[in-house]
Write a structure and sequence with these properties.
Helix content is 45%, strand content 12%. The strands form 2 sheets. The chain has a 4-stranded mixed beta sheet with strand order 4-3-5-6. Helix 3 crosses helix 5 and helix 5 runs antiparallel to helix 6. The radius of gyration is 19 Å and the shape is globular. InterPro entries: DUF3025. This is DUF3025 domain-containing protein.
Amino acid sequence: MPTLPAIDWPRPWYDAVRPAFERLGLDPGGVEAGAAMDAFNAAAAATGLRNHLGMPISFVPQSALPEGRAYEQFIGATGCVPTRENLHDFFNALVWMTFPRIKCALNALQSAQIALSGVGKSRGPARDGATIFDENSALLVVRASSGGEALVAALRTHRWSEALFARRAQFGTDAQVWLFGHALMEKLVAPRKAITAHVLVVMADAAYFALAPAAQRAWIDERVARGLADGALSTASFTPLQVLGVPGWWEGQDQAFYADTSVFRPKRVESTI
């Protein structure tokens, strides 16, 4: 069995899934793929992890996915998550362990869209949004206040220096970034300044920020899953955020760092002609 590439676990972008990994009891210096599959299945059984139809979730080899069957539809119908021996699917399983309600809601949305319009080349806005969320998203939890709203406005309008440098003190106390997308986590094994997340903003009250991290994860899981079930999701739901620009997540974050317009690009002006 292959050993997965090394992961720099202390990095802050792995804060969301690190506790789930630690509970597996695997060697952080080198994860053997077969041992990871066994550990994930034991954890899924122990926690009663289930899909939206109530079927137990299990992690199975990629070969279990029938030819021509859509991945999301297969999970929705069977509870079996096809899992390859690579970092991409390893992080996917960790996200299932960390945010099971969100993963379940996303799979329900994707399965419903496939049932409605088939697999096809064109997925439509809802399925596109769900795929982006699953693969490359981060959750920005912001304190519901005038300062929080101003931070979000600065990010949405790509005023990077204001949002990430001038307002850097808000991060940790009034704003938190939690990675969700498993492809995003995989990319950050080899961090680059240009790696960008699709961010979904989640507003929270003061009570959330007083919770312990485990309780914050549970709150996020319930709140976001409920939102996915109740409302529409599309590519317009997200705003970009350069992951290494999150205050405290990288070295040398001075004003010049955020003035790099090859990474922190100004918002494109829409033509009115």
